[in-house]
Backbone:
């Protein structure tokens, strides 16, 4: 990075240039990692709060970089989105997560396993996205109703006919749709009725404040859980770290939970064990 460029740019803004070169390097490395299938998936269990059982997982991508160590998705997903690499990367994630879910379910004598996969706006905007998902389901033998696609509110907030049609096409495959990080976007409650969404994932920022001293913090989460219920949607709370938060969510009647309190996202082998053990937590 130090020798590249040089001259005129270095004399102006050395830091900016360093940042740019680093970013280009990272971009090239990411392209190579995608092509060579060097990315990995970790899985975080989803717990059914009625039965305390592991009923599924959220697939979370990881990049073990040869020299920089493990790179956080928040540091490379934006690059993948900006370059368009997210499209092949996202397809790989979807395929690998479904393949893995089918394998674990088979090993557990067919016990159903719900697999959640994060989808970027950039993927969703591909005209053939629904066909891609259909192809992956066919390739892996994953039953559609065991796949959940997680999308942020920004996808749904763009209330266009094209978006609605895309959602309808996806729903027609038989899968479920979740709104990720619910409550953090510019929510208009109207779109919740308009769009065929099945699940609300309550953002960690709400869960974090549970068990605090301010009652208003609890009221907001309670309202989201009730909203989900009244619309016939499942509610999943993310980012549970403490027993107090879990107790509060149970009290509210939240259906499902994820968080370090139960398990961090773990490599495939460990996740498989958690599922097979039935993992009462
Ligand atoms: P997300 O979809 O909201 O995923 C939840 C994030 O919270 C994960 O971070 C997870 O490790 C973390 N988390 C889970 N439980 C706890 C907890 O109890 N406490 C705390 N502090 N954190 C918790 P991760 O794995 O670093 O992923 C970050 C984000 O990167 C994800 O946020 C998602 O937006 C994106 N991402 C990850 N994998 C993919 C992918 O395959 N495709 C796309 N498009 N985005 C992905
Ligand atoms: Ca998610
Ligand atoms: Ca989330
Ligand atoms: Ca998040």
Residues:
């Amino acid at each position: 990075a130090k020798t590249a460029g040089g001259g005129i740019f270095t004399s102006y803004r050395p830091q900016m240039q360093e940042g740019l070169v680093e970013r280009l390097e990272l971009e090239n490395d990411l392209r190579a990692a995608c092509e060579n299938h060097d990315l990995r998936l970790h899985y975080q269990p989803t717990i059914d709060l009625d039965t305390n059982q592991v009923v599924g997982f959220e697939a979370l991508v990881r990049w073990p970089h040869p020299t920089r160590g493990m790179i956080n998705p928040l540091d490379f997903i934006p690059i993948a989105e900006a370059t368009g690499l997210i499209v092949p990367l996202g397809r790989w994630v979807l395929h690998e997560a479904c393949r893995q879910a089918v394998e674990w379910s088979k090993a557990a004598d067919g016990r159903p396993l719900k697999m959640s996969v994060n989808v970027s706006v950039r993927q969703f905007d591909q005209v053939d996205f629904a066909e891609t998902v259909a192809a992956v389901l066919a390739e892996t033998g994953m039953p559609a109703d065991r796949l959940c696609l997680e999308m942020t509110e920004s996808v749904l907030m763009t209330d266009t006919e094209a978006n609605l049609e895309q959602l309808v096409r996806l729903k027609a495959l038989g899968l479920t749709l979740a709104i990720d990080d619910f409550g953090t976007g510019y929510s208009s409650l109207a779109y919740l009725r308009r769009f065929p969404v099945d699940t609300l994932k309550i953002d960690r920022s709400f869960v974090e404040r549970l068990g605090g001293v301010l009652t208003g913090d609890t009221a907001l989460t309670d309202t989201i859980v009730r909203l989900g219920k009244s619309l016939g949607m499942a509610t999943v709370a993310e980012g549970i770290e403490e027993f107090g938060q879990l107790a509060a969510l149970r009290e509210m009647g939240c259906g499902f939970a994820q968080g370090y309190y139960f398990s961090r996202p773990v490599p495939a082998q460990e996740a498989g064990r958690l599922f097979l053990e039935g993992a009462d937590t």
Remarks:
- Residues 144 and 174 are 5 Å apart (CA to CA).
